[in-house]
Specification:
Oligomer: single chain
Order of helices and strands: EHEHEHEHEHEHHHE
Number of strands: 7
Radius of gyration: 19 Å
Number of domains: 1
Shape: globular
CATH class: Alpha Beta
Structural class: alpha/beta
Length: 266
C-alpha cells in the first residue's frame, strides 16, 4: 500500500474537542496519515496533552465552540499561522442525564449550544476558508442516538439528529462549490465521557454482549471512519451518515422470540 494512500499528507485538519477520547484518537489518526492536526478544545490543558502524543508541534488553541467569537478567533489564527483549513472534524460534545419532563430550558440550551450550534458555528467559520478554495471536507461526529431516541439524556438525541440534518444541508448547499459534508455516527464507544459505565464489570459485559461483534468500540474505530470520509478516497461521498456501531443498530429483529428459529449452539 502506498504510504499516502489516503491523500491527506500535509493537509490542515481542524479537530474540535481534541482533548477528549474520540478527539484525541482523531488527532493521532490524522497525524499518522501525515496530516497537520489543529487541536481545539475548551479545556486547553487536555488539548496540550493530546499534542504531546503527536509528532512535531501541532497548533493548540483554546476554543469554546458555543461562543461565536471564540470560534472566529480560532479560525483566524489557524489561517494566519498555518493556512486555510482543509478538513474540519466537528467532534466537541456534551452528554448530560435528565428526563425531558423535568429538563430546564437552560439545560436544554446548554447542550444544544455545544452539540448542534457549535457544529454550525465551526462549519461556517472554517467552511468559509474551504469555500474560498473551492475544496474541503467536513466530518461531523453524531451518534446512533440521532437515529434512536436515547431516554433520560436531555437534549442529546435531538442534538445529534440535528447534526445529521445540518450535515446534509451543508452537503447540498456547498457540494457544488467543492466542499463535502458527512457524518460518522458512533454506537457504543469506551471514552472518558462513558468510562464510568464500564467500571462496573457486569455493565461492561452486557454492553459488549448486545453488539454483534461482541466488543465495544475504541475511539480509534471512530477515527478510522472519519479518516476515510475526510480523504480524497471518499471524494464522491457527500451528505452521508456512516453508522459505526458494530452492527448494534441491526439487532432489533433478534430480540423478537420466534420458536424454531433459535441460534445454533456454539
Amino acid at each position: 500500500m502506498a504510504p499516502d494512500w489516503l491523500g491527506l499528507h500535509d493537509r490542515i485538519v481542524v479537530i474540535t474537542g481534541a482533548g477528549g477520547g474520540i478527539g484525541r484518537a482523531m488527532a493521532l489518526a490524522f497525524a499518522a496519515a501525515g496530516a497537520r492536526p489543529v487541536l481545539l478544545d475548551r479545556d486547553q490543558a487536555a488539548a496540550v496533552e493530546t499534542a504531546a502524543l503527536l509528532p512535531g508541534s501541532p497548533l493548540v488553541q483554546r476554543c469554546d465552540v458555543a461562543d461565536p467569537e471564540s470560534v472566529a478567533a480560532a479560525a483566524d489564527a489557524t489561517a494566519r499561522l498555518l493556512g486555510p483549513c482543509e478538513v474540519l472534524v466537528n467532534n466537541a460534545g456534551l452528554l448530560r442525564a435528565g428526563p425531558i419532563a423535568s429538563l430546564t430550558l437552560e439545560a436544554w440550551n446548554q447542550l444544544l449550544a455545544v452539540n448542534l450550534t457549535g457544529y454550525f458555528l465551526c462549519a461556517k467559520a472554517f467552511g468559509r476558508q474551504m469555500l474560498a478554495r473551492k475544496s474541503g471536507a467536513i466530518v461531523h461526529v453524531a451518534s446512533i442516538a440521532g437515529r434512536h431516541p436515547q431516554p433520560w439524556s436531555g437534549a442529546y438525541s435531538v442534538s445529534k439528529a440535528g447534526v445529521v440534518m445540518l450535515s446534509q444541508q451543508l452537503a447540498l448547499e456547498w457540494g457544488p462549490q467543492g466542499v463535502r459534508s458527512n457524518v460518522v455516527s458512533p454506537g457504543l464507544v469506551r471514552t472518558p465521557m462513558s468510562e464510568a459505565f464500564y467500571r462496573i464489570p457486569e455493565v461492561a459485559e452486557q454492553r459488549a454482549g448486545v453488539v454483534p461483534l461482541r466488543r465495544v468500540a475504541a475511539p480509534a474505530d471512530i477515527a478510522d471512519a472519519a479518516l476515510f470520509l475526510a480523504s480524497p478516497r471518499a471524494s464522491y461521498i457527500n451528505g452521508e451518515d456512516l453508522c459505526c456501531d458494530g452492527g448494534f443498530g441491526r439487532t432489533l429483529m433478534g430480540l423478537v422470540p420466534r420458536p424454531g428459529f433459535d441460534a445454533p449452539a456454539d
